[in-house]
């Protein structure tokens, strides 16, 4: 396994964002005790034959708005699975249902063979689903390194007394190890030189990238990337595309939402297109991209 990337992650969800932010900060200040950061989670390098995630007839209504209508989705272990669709088609709602921000109105979410429907975001993250957000959610008054360390809280135990009485010279071997691992994640995403900066001082693209590092620090088996290249220039997008490949190469399954259809086509093994909360096409990226229904719904005829 290539270097730094052995871990899991999770992240805050929209519903519990504030709570989780506080929780991670407390957990970080208490200086975490490691459990196990040593093993890769997934077997496949190029996509296996098992479905790590299944959505079965998922419906999500917001009052009269039917955001998801009977969605079935199978995500193959080790793959990059693109999710595309026009604005308001239900992509982020799909992520919110998978990560526990919303319970589905009906239907099931099966992850790694377990029914996770209705679990809390924390429980789901603990099971191994990490995510990022369209608008980066970093903790601005923590350093870049601390943000990543905070992302490790799912895989650590907390010494509560340490929260109150921690002094720098008391840093334990485990705590040093956490710093070391967090630096590895930063190196992996190319932010190691910014480790000591305030996260709030990073530019948008760096904050997006930091979100990914923090997600990886929770050692996810499945990583949900919501518009990871939003607001980025061509060079930065290319970097993220490469990063997606490297994450996949380390065995983590990815679901990728992006408006940039070229990125999705290049980076994904399979693509699902949705419109008005329903699946309208699924298959190999080029096939989906050229599907007339998708072109009409989403791409525009000149794409
Ligand atoms: N919390 C909410 N309360 C009410 N309606 C919501 C909520 N979240 C999403 N919706 C509605 O559900 C539908 C799907 O929204 P969603 O954000 O999932 O679409 P999307 O495909 O991610 O859009 P975009 O590409 O613009 O991010 C939209 O009609 C949206 O207004």
Automatic annotation (TrEMBL):
List the CDD domains: ABC_Mj1267_LivG_branched
Which of UniProt's keywords are assigned here? ATP-binding, Nucleotide-binding, Transport
| Entry-linked Gene3D superfamilies | P-loop containing nucleotide triphosphate hydrolases
Coiled coil regions in record = none
| ABC transporter domain sequence ranges | 53-301
Keyword check for Cell membrane, yes or no. Answer: no
Supply the SMART domains for this chain.
AAA (SM00382)
The protein's matches in Pfam families, at most eight in alphabetical order, are given as:
ABC_tran (PF00005), BCA_ABC_TP_C (PF12399)
The protein's GO terms of the molecular function aspect are: ATP binding; ATP hydrolysis activity
Family annotation (InterPro entries): AAA+_ATPase, ABC_AA/LPS_Transport, ABC_transporter-like_ATP-bd, BCA_ABC_TP_C, P-loop_NTPase
Q: GO cellular component terms?
A: plasma membrane
Name of the protein in its database record? Amino acid/amide ABC transporter ATP-binding protein 1, HAAT family
Lineage summary:
Bacteria, Bacillati, Bacillota, Clostridia, Lachnospirales
């Amino acid at each position: 396994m290539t270097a730094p990337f052995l871990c899991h992650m999770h992240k805050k969800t929209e519903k519990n964002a504030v709570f989780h932010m506080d929780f991670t900060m407390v957990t970080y200040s208490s200086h975490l005790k490691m459990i196990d950061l040593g093993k890769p989670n997934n077997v496949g390098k190029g996509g296996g034959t098992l479905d790590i995630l299944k959505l079965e007839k998922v419906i999500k209504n917001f009052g009269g708005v039917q955001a998801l209508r009977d969605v079935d989705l199978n995500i193959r272990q080790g793959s990059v699975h693109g999710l595309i669709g026009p604005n308001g088609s239900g992509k982020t709602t799909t992520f919110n249902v998978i990560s526990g921000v919303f319970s589905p109105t009906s239907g099931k979410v099966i992850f790694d063979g377990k029914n996770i429907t209705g679990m809390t975001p924390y429980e789901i993250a603990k099971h191994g689903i990490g995510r990022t957000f369209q608008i980066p959610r970093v903790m601005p008054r923590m350093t870049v390194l601390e943000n990543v360390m905070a992302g490790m809280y799912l895989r650590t135990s907390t010494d509560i007394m340490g929260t109150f009485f921690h002094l720098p010279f008391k840093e334990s071997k485990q705590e040093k190890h956490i710093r070391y691992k967090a630096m590895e994640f930063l190196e992996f995403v190319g932010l190691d030189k910014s480790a000591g900066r305030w996260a709030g001082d990073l530019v948008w693209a760096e904050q997006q990238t930091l979100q990914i590092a923090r997600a990886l620090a929770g050692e996810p088996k499945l990583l949900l990337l919501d518009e990871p290249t939003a607001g980025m220039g061509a060079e930065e997008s290319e970097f993220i595309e490469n990063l997606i490949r490297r994450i996949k190469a380390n065995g983590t399954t990815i679901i990728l939402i992006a408006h940039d259809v070229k990125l999705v086509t290049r980076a994904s093994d399979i693509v699902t297109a949705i419109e008005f909360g329903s699946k309208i096409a699924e298959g190999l990226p080029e096939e989906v991209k050229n599907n007339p229904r998708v072109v009409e719904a989403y791409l525009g005829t000149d794409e």
